[in-house]
Amino acid sequence: MMITPPPGPYRAYLFDCDGTVADSMPLHYEAWKQALGEWGCEFPEDLFYAWGGRPVADIIASLNDRHGLTMPVARVARRREDLFQRMLPRLRAVPEALEHIDDAYGRLPFAVVSGSTRESVTASLTTIGLLDRFDVLVCAGDYVRPKPDPDGFLLAARLLGVAPEHCLVFEDTDMGIQAATAAGMRSVRIPQRRTESD
């Protein structure tokens, strides 16, 4: 059953990628566990979901501080990305987001606003056959302050040429919803899917 958004009018839809369009969070967590395990670093699942939306480099730096480690950020990030890419054949779209994409495609422009790298976002969307649906991709490195700051969403609205108040955001994390609200946009919460069997 389609999730009902708050009343419009909307002139653009903005989607987070991981956990919102792509059911990738369980795969990302597997990749994180394996990459960090090679350095003896623990990353509890609850913390992983609580930090959803944060850039990869920021997460590694925070884990270094938290555990008193000196993991090389770029190397761990590359290893995690390589592991995730190997898991892509298992990736599927999130049905709740896909319904809205199918319903509004051709009527409204779409953007992805993600804390993940452009490489990761492009690979995920390509795997699930949705890359060509999006007019704009805003990824880590395209803006300075990550979610819950609104910068990514505001940049996407600017690139689409749509005022923030006419954008509807689809998100699965608290930080993403906070960022959308800070941008002056209304939002739809996509339920988190923590295991592949959900």
Spatial extent as radius of gyration:
16 Å
Give the CA-based shape. Answer: globular
Number of helices: 8
Low-confidence stretches: none
Output the helix-strand order.
EHHHHHEHEHEHE
Distance between the termini: 16 Å
Strand order in space, largest sheet: 3-2-1-4-5
Strand content: 5-15%
The largest pleated sheet is described as:
5 strands, parallel
Which bin fits the share of residues in helices?
40-55%
The structure class reads: alpha/beta
Write down how many β-strands occur, each being a DSSP E stretch of 2 or more residues: 5
The average pLDDT is 94
Structural account:
The chain has 198 residues and is of the alpha/beta class. It is 43% helix and 10% strand. The chain contains eight helices and five strands. It has helices at 25-37, 45-50, 56-67, 73-87, 95-104, 118-127, 151-160, 174-182, and strands spanning 12-15, 110-113, 136-138, 167-171, 186-189. A five-stranded parallel β-sheet has the order 3-2-1-4-5, covered by helices on one side. β2 (110-113), α6 (118-127) and β3 (136-138) form a beta-alpha-beta unit. α1 (25-37) crosses α4 (73-87). The chain is globular and about 50 Å long. The protein starts with 11 loop residues before the first strand and ends in a 9-residue tail after the last strand. The model has no long low-confidence stretch (mean pLDDT 94).
Annotation keywords:
single chain; 43% helix; alpha/beta; five-stranded parallel sheet; 198 residues; 8 helices; 5 strands
